[in-house]
Design goal:
The complex is a heterodimer of chains A (596) and B (380). Chain A is built from 14 helices and 31 strands. With 596 residues, chain A is α/β, with parallel strands linked by helices. Classes of the chains: A alpha/beta (596), B alpha/beta (380). At the A-B interface, helix 13 and strand 31 of A face helix 6, helix 8 and strand 17 of B. One flavin-adenine dinucleotide binds next to helix 1, strand 13, strand 17 and helix 9 of chain B.
């Protein structure tokens, strides 16, 4: 039986990062059940977050390819299509490859088997057409197969949000993302990417039932209360043919249990997880873990954990002093986990006795915006998430994130040269280019990842952050980029340079301007054509802005249409009066007896 | 802007517009309406749109009945669907004195040819099961009453006036009226001068300001009234319901929303078009009590408007004794929308023939205040 200094089970980012370090020092084997290494990365077509050292802003499948290249050059044995079926006494790993069982022995073992998707119980959840998000990604991104045309996504974590965006990129329709909590689970920038395509995210909602006889033909969704119980009477039906469940992941712990490692239930880390120390060693001194198996996190943390485990093994086996490198990696992890989105992980780790040192996030004061008529970047990234791709990409020092990569970027417009490299690297597609001067029109550069690409002079629709129509605009030029985040520069009325965040080809149906009352551009233009040009009169005839939102969403757009048709600048138009209440209130809210 | 007009109507609300429309319909040329803001910017744009004929004096009943006739023809005559709906008016009585009044009024209204009846509390419960009938003694019910969208009606008139060759100036303010030897010679605006011999003051609660430009005293003042609208719900409420005792009215619009208002205990002046939170509190309490099904319906918006109040809460329609051919139509005291079509017709007849032909409005002349007045008390 072959014996290795180190055996790594699982070829995701954690396992690959470990093998990469191990390969420089010890005899190493890496096993993975898939036909290529990469783990989750293989099905990810989006750019990853994180630190540029750990491949931030590189697309998932490309990170995998880079790693594979590196590992293949090292004396590492790689066994793909090899499923580990058990860990046996005397440090034995049994696996099945091409229908045949085989075994290897290890001195030290790293288990990096990642996580699996959680299930969600609802009526008819066994109907064909109900999928886990991962399955849909595999079908779509690895095999180019589309399981449906109209999708409902359950869960607004990063996976659900990214899946929604990826589905929309392929041209299928995502009817909604439903989320039981009262806030979006994933990163704001990922949510924004989906929202600006017009995909609604319904908070405090869940799926009650899939409808259909032989396969999914629709779904019943409903609102839930604070205890996640369905509120009777709020059920509504939506027509979809595919339902994707992405309500979280849980670690795959079987192999660690068989390796006699202690398992603990720590919900903050994803459920049952192996107990381990800061250096990823489990309660079995020969067995280490890394990646999603040890806590559901990210590719970056998975890689660092893989490296940590590997370094400790090198110290153990080769007695080489790597203490400096190890403490560096521990610090990098701590920085990575210092943001608010990592709160759960930090408290989960504390339960295991691993205290993440507090690392202060420096507060940069924002620099004044300077409208100097030059093309410059606009960064819309305010949430504290671990990413610094923009800072690394800017050659002119105009973007500062600093040592703690959770710090939101601070932008210096005076240093910006308008090169737009940051726009193409940002994994959140949260950077835009703007130029506006005295002329009535402005230039806006939008990151764009859809096909076919628009052409110069093409007329398109400008859409706002919620995917609503804003105005017609003209494409000036399209800048191509090897990483496939293209920049579409458009010419549009100055008023909308901060409103438009996406462009789309004009659709056949007339765009709704006032969503509350479902009034189209066409209807408004007809009224203007009949000689009625006063905003107030148009409002009374068409009911625009008379719905629950009171014009919050659409008033500017309507004024834009009036301005365009009459030639009167928006600043000279009357725009109506704002009246209370600014948000709708139930009668019962005013009942004295009911008042708290 | 025309240089000369046969008639200048000051105020492009529903009343001024109806007058100008009637003049044009009776073949008067060169009619000009001057409105200082946009069409329906005054009380008309803030109004609830109720149209009723159940009044306490015979002449008011007659005038309202004539208006209903004209509303029935509105779409054909004026050219726009204004969501006119004859779902009836239900007036609720809670006290013995209200019962006496209602019974007396219904007798009188019937004698004027109005199809109106008394409903017992049980009949109300049967017809409108969603109304809490507790303490209700009876109701007065007229099916041909109803409501329409006042803003659309105002705009419909404006469009028709322009189509018929009249001029409808918006965003133009009358700043003065030129008079020589008690004869009008022209009207001054912030956009230019128009010569004319005939002026109609239809400036709503601001009619006295126009009068004072030429020394005519019009005893009208603005009084703020608040109103709110809810989200749209499936149609369930046919009539406009008035509850004098609990002091509110409510109706359901064509769009599905519920529109409702009340008379404030100490109404602010009509210059103050602000809103109060007490209004929402009071209305909520009343609605939840009388229409329990509305408990969880959302209020979408509140606003306020001015009633053009006269001393007896009845309109003042007359020609000045001091300035020849200065005609005023104001003081509608919260029911100018419903009367506008008939008032428009009457005023046009006064201008063209020197007297009304179709409907008698002599009870609405100014001299009643020196002779002695009887207040219309069926007003919210
Ligand atoms: C949609 C989506 C988007 C994401 N976006 C980002 C992002 O932008 N940035 C970021 O940092 N992270 C992102 N992540 C998270 C990241 O992909 C994971 O945290 C990371 O892949 C975890 O790495 P891992 O090596 O622990 O596990 P995995 O990548 O899951 O790899 C585990 C591997 O082990 C194999 N395996 C399991 N059991 C066995 C067995 N018995 N025998 C053999 N092989 C086995 C599996 O098949 C798999 O290949 C995303 C994840 C998803 C699903
Ligand atoms: C809350 C509320 C609810 C109501 N509900 C009802 C109802 O249910 N049924 C009903 O029949 N009535 C109702 N009314 C009353 C009704 O709205 C009014 O009686 C009616 O609109 C009066 O019409 P108007 O044309 O006389 O006045 P307005 O609509 O006020 O028009 C007068 C116009 O004159 C213009 N003007 C003033 N000064 C000048 C100037 N110097 N130069 C040029 N223009 C000038 C003003 O801008 C205004 O547009 C309600 C009123 C309110 C406030």
């Amino acid at each position: 039986m072959k014996e290795y200094d180190a055996v790594v089970i699982g070829g995701g980012p954690a396992g690959m990062a470990a093998a990469d370090v191990l390969g420089d020092h010890v005899k190493t084997l890496i096993l993975d059940e898939n036909d290529m290494l990469g783990g989750q990365l293989v099905k990810q077509t989006h750019k990853f977050f994180g630190d540029h050292v750990h491949y931030a802003s590189t697309r998932g499948f490309e990170i995998a390819n880079k790693f594979i290249d590196k590992i293949e050059k090292k004396p590492v044995d790689i066994l793909t299509s090899s499923t580990v079926i058990g860990i046996y006494p005397q440090n034995t790993v049994a696996y099945v490859r091409n229908g045949h069982e085989d075994q290897v022995k290890y001195k030290k073992l790293i288990i990096a088997t990642g996580a699996m998707e959680r299930q969600l119980p609802f009526i008819n959840s066994d109907l064909p057409g109900v999928y886990g998000a991962g399955a849909v990604q595999t079908l779509m991104n690895q095999y180019g197969i589309f399981p449906g045309k109209r999708f409902l996504i359950i869960g607004s974590g990063n996976i659900g949000l990214i899946l929604a965006y990826q589905l929309a990129q392929t041209g299928v329709e995502v009817r909604a993302i439903v989320e039981a909590l009262d806030k979006i689970g994933g990163y704001e920038v990922h949510a924004n990417k989906a929202k600006r395509l017009g995909i609604p995210i319904l908070l405090k909602h869940t799926i009650v039932k899939a409808i259909g006889d032989e396969s999914v033909q629709g779904a019943i969704i409903a609102e839930v209360d604070d205890k996640f119980n369905v509120i009777a009477g709020t059920e509504k039906e939506i027509v979809v043919d595919t339902i994707c469940i992405s309500v979280g992941l849980m670690p795959i712990t079987e192999l660690t249990e068989q390796a006699k490692c202690k398992i603990a239930y720590i919900p903050e880390l994803g459920g049952y997880v192996p107990v381990r120390d800061e250096r990823m060693r489990t309660t079995n001194p020969d067995v280490f873990v890394a990646g999603d198996l040890s806590s559901i996190e990210e590719a970056t943390t998975a890689m660092i954990e893989g490296k940590l485990a590997a370094m400790q093994i090198v110290e153990d086996v080769k007695k080489i002093d790597l203490e400096k490198e190890i403490s560096n990696e521990i610090k990098t992890l701590a920085i990575f986990r210092s943001g608010p989105k990592s709160l759960k992980i930090r408290s989960g780790l504390e339960k295991m006795g691993i205290v993440t040192p507090r690392i202060e996030m420096p507060k940069f004061s924002p620099l004044p915006n300077s409208e100097n008529g030059k093309l410059h970047a606009v960064i819309e990234c305010t949430e504290e998430i671990p990413c610094n791709s923009c800072e690394s990409a800017c050659k002119f020092d105009a973007i500062k994130v600093g040592e703690n990569i959770n710090t939101p970027p601070v932008f210096d417009p005076l240093k910006c040269t308008g090169c737009a490299v940051c726009v193409t690297v940002c994994p959140g597609l949260a950077i835009f280019m703007e130029k506006s001067d005295e002329s009535p029109n402005a230039t806006l550069g939008i990151p764009y990842e859809f096909l076919p690409l628009p052409k110069s002079n093409e007329k398109m629709w400008g859409m706002d952050r919620d995917g609503n129509y804003v105005c017609d605009l003209t494409v000036k030029r399209v800048v191509k980029n090897p990483n496939k985040t293209y920049i579409v520069y458009v010419d549009l009325p100055k008023e909308f340079v901060d409103v438009v965040r996406h462009v789309t080809y004009p659709r056949k149906e007339n765009p709704f301007v006032c969503r509350c009352e479902e009034i189209t551009v066409d209807q408004i233009e007809k009224v203007i054509d009949s000689g009625i040009t006063d905003f107030e009169e148009i409002k009374r005839i068409t009911r625009v802005t008379m719905g629950p939102c009171g014009g919050k969403n659409c008033k500017m757009i309507i004024l834009g249409i009036i301005s365009k048709k009459t030639g009167i600048p928006i600043s000279k138009l009357s725009h109506g009066t704002s009246r209370p209440p600014v948000k709708v209130v139930e009668f019962s809210a005013f009942l004295r007896g009911d008042k708290k | 802007m025309m240089k000369h007009a046969s008639v200048v109507v000051i105020g492009g609300g529903i009343v001024g517009s109806a007058i100008a429309f009637s003049l044009l319909k009776m073949k008067t040329k060169n009619v000009c309406v001057i409105e200082k803001s946009y069409v329906s910017s005054g009380s008309t744009g803030r109004c609830a749109g109720g149209i009723r004929q159940q009044w306490s004096s015979p002449m008011n009943v007659k005038l309202a009945m004539r208006s209903v006739k004209l509303f029935e023809e509105f779409e054909k005559d004026v050219g726009m669907n204004i969501e006119y709906y004859q779902g009836g008016y239900l007036l609720l009585a809670y006290t013995d004195s209200e019962v006496d009044d209602f019974e007396k009024n219904v007798r009188m209204q019937k004698s004027q040819g109005l199809d109106v009846e008394i409903l017992t509390s049980n009949q109300i419960k049967e017809k409108f099961p969603f109304i809490n009938v507790e303490d209700i003694k009876l109701g007065s019910w007229c099916q041909s009453d109803g409501h329409a969208n006042p803003q659309l009606a105002n705009i419909a008139y404006a469009i028709a006036i322009r189509k018929m060759g009249g001029e409808f100036l918006t965003h133009t303010t009358v700043t003065g009226i030129d008079v020589q030897n008690r004869q009008i010679i022209g009207v001054q605006t912030d956009n230019g001068y128009i010569s004319t011999k005939i002026v109609v003051d239809a400036a709503g609660f601001e009619a006295p300001k126009i009068g004072s430009m030429i020394g005519v005293d019009i005893p009208v003042h603005g009084e703020r009234h608040q109103i709110l609208v809810t989200e749209a719900v499936n149609h369930f409420l046919d009539p406009l319901v008035i509850n004098f005792n609990h002091n509110y009215y409510v109706r359901q619009t064509h769009h599905g929303s519920l529109m409702m208002g009340q008379g404030d205990a100490n109404p602010a002046s009509g210059e103050d078009l602000g809103n109060t939170i007490e209004f929402l509190e009071e209305m909520s309490e009343k609605m939840i009590k009388d229409f329990p099904l509305l408990k969880n319906i959302h209020i979408v918006r509140q606003w306020s408007g001015a009633y053009d109040m006269s001393p007896d809460a009845q309109p003042i329609i007359d020609e000045s004794k001091d300035i020849s051919r200065f005609i005023y139509a104001t003081g509608f005291s919260g029911h100018g929308f419903m009367l506008a079509p008939a008032v428009g017709e009457s005023v046009a007849e006064m201008i063209i023939h020197g007297q009304t032909v179709t409907t008698d409005v002599s009870n609405l002349k100014m001299d009643r205040f020196t002779i002695g007045i009887e207040r219309e008390h069926n007003v919210v």
